[in-house]
Amino acid sequence: MEVSVIDLGYNSIRLSLFQRSSNGNFRSVGSMKDFTRLGDGVDEGGEIKEGRVNEAERVLSTFRKVLEKRGVSEVFPLGTSAFRLARNGEEVAKRLSKSLGWDVIIVSGEEEGRLSALASINSVPITDGVIFELGGGSLEVTYVSGREIGKIYNFPLGALRLIKIMKTEDRIRKEIRSYLYSLPSWLPPSLIGSGGNLRAIAKFLMKVNKVKFKHVHGYQVSSATIKSLARTLWSMRDEEISRLPGIGEQRSVTVKAAILVIEELINLYDVPYLTVSELGMREGKLMKGEELSVPKMRGKWLDSFSEFSGVQPPESIRFEVEKLTGSDLAADAGFLAHVFMESGWSDPFNACYQYVIQSLFPGFLQRELGYLALICKGATEKVKKKDLQRLGIEGRTDKINQLSRVMKKVVKSYPLGVY
């Protein structure tokens, strides 16, 4: 069954289409986006401009045709900071509901933060830390302890809002600090972020470093890199930034403010690196609650992949590989490779490698997926140092190749499957 979540944001409107699995998880099957900038010029008590509303009506009419053509009946349209800030927010939500055919619900800042945090908790291996989502009009910061959502904070520190109102680096930094310094003092073990500008920054850094992953989920950026990039971006014109790989013209307007928010968060929490989550509020809307352990969370994503492939989850193979190797990543590689084998792939190990580096696979850090992918690759051909470099990871190739041999032997031992 397909379900859609539509994010009517301060900067853009995005339709995301998902397919649900029986265990409550899902996979993305498509998306559409338009930079309508509903929040452009909106501050506390201002109004969403008529021209922006007209553009949004046009976009949502297009979305409606797509949804009706696909027979999607479960749709969640969520209005965020632009609607909360604007004096005519509720009126605009009603107008846009008519264009779309489903009621636009204005979510509170706290609910937006909760949904964003839920998506990260259930897709990134985190136990304790701080999760933030940076949008065009607002910033949500959530404290997490024992994989449970704690206090949620919402600030009017969206990237588009900051760049339009504050304009200069000094004024933007001062505005950011005036809000962030009200947060409780804590040195969290991890900092996880989501949002369009952060994804664009991660894509740029991955391209610069020639990392071959297609998606940024689970990618980790050092604090030093963020600070250096902030200085670089503020020395460039918007036109120059728009030509950077992964950024583009639309993000060039907002990425300079976004990098300052990210840098100030890193400084505040004194973390060595930032982890990027590709899942945010839209995905969180489809989740019921926090998975209580990382292994259980990962297991659900693996089981969903198996279900979408039409194959019963090969849990026994996963268990046997882990017993022989002591490596949960080798066990997960065996799980995926066996699913591909039962699905009819002539080289299930290469299929596993290609899928992991090309597709969004939640539940792991990107470097963990890198090792998993190379364990699959090593079952077909010997893994070399350059293979690690292509995926932006470090490690011992002899250890990876050893894990590959054991994993391959187990998978090949059960050509008809074992459960």
From TrEMBL:
InterPro entries according to UniProt: ATPase_NBD (IPR043129), GppA/Ppx_hydrolase (IPR050273), Ppx_GppA_N (IPR003695)
Positions of the Ppx/GppA phosphatase N-terminal domain: 20-287
GO BP of this protein: regulation of transcription by RNA polymerase II
Cited Pfam families: Ppx-GppA
Name of protein: Ppx/GppA phosphatase
Originating organism: Metallosphaera cuprina (strain Ar-4)
